[in-house]
Amino acid sequence: MKVSKAKSAENRAALLAAASDLLKEQGFDGAGVAEISRRAGLTQGAFYSQFPSKAALAAEACRASVAGSQAFWRGVQDGAPADVSGYLDAYLSADHLENVITGCPMAAYGSEVGRQDGALKAAFTEGFEDLVQVMQEALSLKMPADLARQRALLLVSGMAGGLAMARAVATSNPRLASEILQSTREGLMQLASAEGTTTGGD
Amino acid sequence: MKVSKAKSAENRAALLAAASDLLKEQGFDGAGVAEISRRAGLTQGAFYSQFPSKAALAAEACRASVAGSQAFWRGVQDGAPADVSGYLDAYLSADHLENVITGCPMAAYGSEVGRQDGALKAAFTEGFEDLVQVMQEALSLKMPADLARQRALLLVSGMAGGLAMARAVATSNPRLASEILQSTREGLMQLASAEGTTTGGD
DNA sequence: TGTACATCAGTGAACGCGCGTTCACTGATGTAC
DNA sequence: TGTACATCAGTGAACGCGCGTTCACTGATGTAC
Fold first, then answer.
1. Residues of A in contact with B26 (CB under 8 A)
2. What is the mean pLDDT of each run of 10 residues along chain A (202 residues)?
3. Separation of CA B24 and C1' C2 in angstroms?
4. CA–CA distance from B39 to each of A18, A159, B11, B43, B149 (Å)?
5. Residue B157 and residue A165: Cβ atoms within 8 Å?
6. Chain B: residue nearest A186 by CA?
7. Is-above-0.85 flag for pTM?
């Protein structure tokens, strides 16, 4: 049966939300059209009247996930006034380690992005740049712009890497996982606050 | 036909090598038994007289990949005498970014490990610990052991994260990718050399 | 405002395909005598 | 050392299954008069 435009838009949003979650939970290959549709309360047929393909949905879901991440970061920034330590503590926490679905897409499927199609890579890349931008702005308060940029790139990559590695080892060695989180937090915090003149230039 | 024990061992090694490559190239879901066997010059039937399942092979291949990584790291260490800058330059290079197959498994499929079975996670975790150990030994020459440990954990995670993020954005924005590599190299190098007393306690 | 009907979002079954795995069979290996 | 034969690594076709995608159909929506 046909459905009102409002309801159709609602269904589209539900598919996107289900996909955002499932992609982080099961990866790009693991997340299937059938389960995404089922979680959105729809059939696979409905899926294909909303999106031309699984790849197209994945690209949009990735864009939505990273935008959501950015909103979270800005939220932390507003709460604890522009202090990078707020980012680090929230990101590299036991809570974030356990909650993949509500967490950051970079850590959830970062290493898979390079194997996806161009639209998805573009969406991820734009989101990544935005996150770096937010981080850079926070750092700019205590260091020159070019150093802030350099440190922002390292912090974002390092946070994603630290969380991803902590998750990878968490089942076999939970103590190691929290050691990774703590070491990453402390080391990156030092780079975020240091007046660092050892940087050397090209 | 039956085959000599030597030839059978050779075939097993070929399957492992093909799997190590293909897992890094296509991920755990993307790499299939058919193609792994084909690349090893064998049929799928041969696969199952060598390994009980795809998951069992994946765990062994992961173990082999990470051990290979460790050998590479030790090699760099022997070449340029125990200097961490040797690790960083080799790992965070354009060359490593382009060559996924011959590269580090942490960056190639780090974010997928958490979704695999226990044997694979255990193999990855042990390999990760070994890499941290090698890094820690190199760092111990210029800082106290506990700080070296903390820094080793951050360096290994940060290197994996930096390379993974650089690869994710490389197609859409190659300039950003090399910026990530460079910023990660420089920032981590600073942490590897700094006498860092700002470490604070837990 | 009320009626007639074209539109089209969603249904649910079916499609071909490639996946991981199984199995009857082959024939060189390597052991027993 | 030479022969007879049990073993078992590898072959290649087949299995069931779930994947992404398609399609004939449904019926509420919302437009045209």
1. 115
2. 90 97 97 97 96 97 90 65 82 96 97 97 97 93 94 98 98 98 97 64 38
3. 67
4. 37, 36, 11, 10, 40
5. yes
6. B199
7. yes
Over chain B (202 residues), what is each successive 10-residue block's mean pLDDT?
Answer: 89 97 97 97 96 97 90 65 82 96 97 97 97 93 94 98 98 98 97 64 38
For residue B190, the distance in angstroms to the closest alpha carbon of chain A comes to 7
pLDDT at residue A199 in the model: 43
Sequential DSSP letters for chain A = ----HHHHHHHHHHHHHHHHHHHHHHHHHHS-HHHHHHHTT--HHHHHHH-S-HHHHHHHHHHHHHHHHHHHHHHHHHHTTT-HHHHHHHHTSHHHHH-STTS-HHHHHGGGGGGS-HHHHHHHHHHHHHHHHHHHHHHTTTS-HHHHHHHHHHHHHHHHHHHHHHHHHHTT-HHHHHHHHHHHHHHHHHHHH----TT---
Query: Phi/psi zone of residue B82: left (φ > 0), alpha (ψ -120 to 50 degrees), beta?
Result: left
- Find where tokens 């760099």 sit: B76
Does the C-beta of A47 come within 7 A of strand D?
yes
